[in-house]
Amino acid sequence: MNHTFFQTGEQHMTGSKTGRICKSLACGLLSFSLLASLAACGNKGAAERPLGESSMDETQIAGGSSANEKRKIIIDTDTGADDASAIILAAKDPDIEIIGVTVLVGNVDLEQSTKNALMALETAGCDAPVYKGSVDTFDGTIKTAFSVFGNDGMGDAGIINPSRQADEGDAIDFMIESVKNNPGEIEIVALGPATNVAKAIQRDPEAMKNVKRIWSMGTAGLGPGNASPVAEFNVYADAEAYRIMLDSGLPITVIGLDVCDGDAQWTDEQFDKLNASGKTGKFVAASFGKIRDFYKSNGSESVMNCDSLAMMCALYPDFVRDRINTHASCITAEGETCALVIFYKEGFTYDAVTNDKPYNVELITDVDKAHYFDLYLSHAAL
Questions:
Q1: Residue 47's pLDDT is what?
Q2: Which domains does the chain have, with CATH numbers?
Q3: 57, 76, 78, 293: the active-site residue
């Protein structure tokens, strides 16, 4: 999720642009933490390694995994501070194999987004490959964003100095090949605009039918937006891409803004705990400096971190308290309702419109907000 201000231009770009909540790791030793984080990461040959058939039972569709079998995810990100914190959460989980991180423009430009993703992985001790993706939207319209995470998207704290570069190859091709070679195994956790995912769907729709599930941090859920009164940034940044993703028929779970507020917001005291917890905690706390200042200027003493919350929904099914089946429809026409995502609830009778649409999205409607920060601290900030 992105906290940003926009201007929409008429210019056109020329470049191609939990079945359980894991128990806290029973150690305080940094050496054990490093081993756990390295064990969570995939190797660079994962995209090419056929894995055979997978069981698609209800537990696995909800996010669980078979015993002794790591879940394989691609993280698609426009890496700002909240994305980076989510990447670290996944990288630290010994039951997760990050087979790759695909990057796109959003919070910041593509080059900065790539550096931020590389640095987040390095901080977590993970060598998963990173691929550059989209620098444009489907309609080519530039939506200029000023990130309240700072110019570098990471608090302007001087913490972005990765020791490696992005891998060769296109993010969209990597996504397609990974899904094609690992049918029914790959889950995509989409933390930014849906451009990379939608382009993959259009480029090879047959291959993308083999995606196990897409987890999308996007939409306002059943609440208000942040890019506009009704629209959330990730959708607003490329509404046509989000529409393509929703209409694809792929299994999709959406985590909206409305489950990220209230007790889920992180306080000054919690950021102090994060900063004192270790290397990764200090990195995450520093990256949130600018956004904390922004929230305080608007009268709030606590801050949303929707991307890590969305990642937690994907990793730990018991963190989710409630979810509903819906038909989700994205408004793409310019105007006040542009990028609004409408959710038709399954089984609900509306006064004036029919509700006989295909239910294409599982919408998360409640999570364990009260324990969100403590769970993050125990799983990621060592």
A1: 43
A2: 23-380 (3.90.245.10)
A3: 78
